[in-house]
Amino acid sequence: MGRDDDGRATTGPDHGRGRTRDGRRSFGPRRGRSAADPRRFLRSGRGMTASGGGKEMHVGVVFASARAVMKPPVPGEADFWNPPTRDARARDYVDENAREVIERGKRDANAGDCDDASETMTTHDEFGRVPAYLIEINRERAEEARRERETRAKNIAERRAAGRLREDERQTLIDRLRTEHAKLSASYQKLPFVVDTPNRRARKEAHELKLALIERDIETLNARTVFVDAS
């Protein structure tokens, strides 16, 4: 068993000197030793010098390479092109507009902007005529008004020709219709439930139609006022 530089026991002959038990070198320096010198540390501002109130990096050596591409230098103030400035007061647009209006002179208001267009509008074949679509619209309106007048006159004539049904007559008609409805209903109930022949189907449909007509007439006669055609 050996001792290292710090006085600690080691299990191998080279243990603590950068080697392991089987004789291979270990990682790093010897135990207790360091490759860095604590007296030689990186100081703040090393490699910088005060110049113009700031710090400037001193570049020692620049290695040239085939792949290195240098950027073009920043253009200076003299390299920029300054276009000449125009004086906005060199041209007076208000004065030019006023002169143009004065020189143009007065125009005839009825002539329009283009004399040729005005002559063409007044000389074509359709000038002064009613358009065809307006004629068609007026014809449809006149036909609709005629039909409405005829319907109104027909209703007035029918109302004048009709007379009010008396109460006893109305009640008599209702009783007769109810009696007829009861007879048809009894006959309808006697029809077979299964309709498997054309005659039975026709008989059933006829009974249903008569019952519906009688029910409609009874509903009409049950109104407060009933008018009948006296003619």
TrEMBL record:
* Bias (Basic and acidic residues): 1-25
Q: Which GO terms describe its molecular function?
A: calmodulin binding
Compartments reported by the entry: Cell projection, Cilium; Cytoplasm, Cytoskeleton
Per UniProt, the keywords (alphabetical) are: Cell projection, Cytoplasm, Cytoskeleton
Q: Where is this region: Disordered?
A: 1-56
Keyword Cytoplasm belongs to the record = yes
Task: Determine if Cytoplasm is one of this entry's keywords.
Answer: yes
Main localization of the protein?
Answer: other
Quote any Pfam family the record assigns.
Enkurin
GO CC annotation: what is one? cytoskeleton
Report domain Enkurin positions.
140-229
Protein name per UniProt? Enkurin-like domain
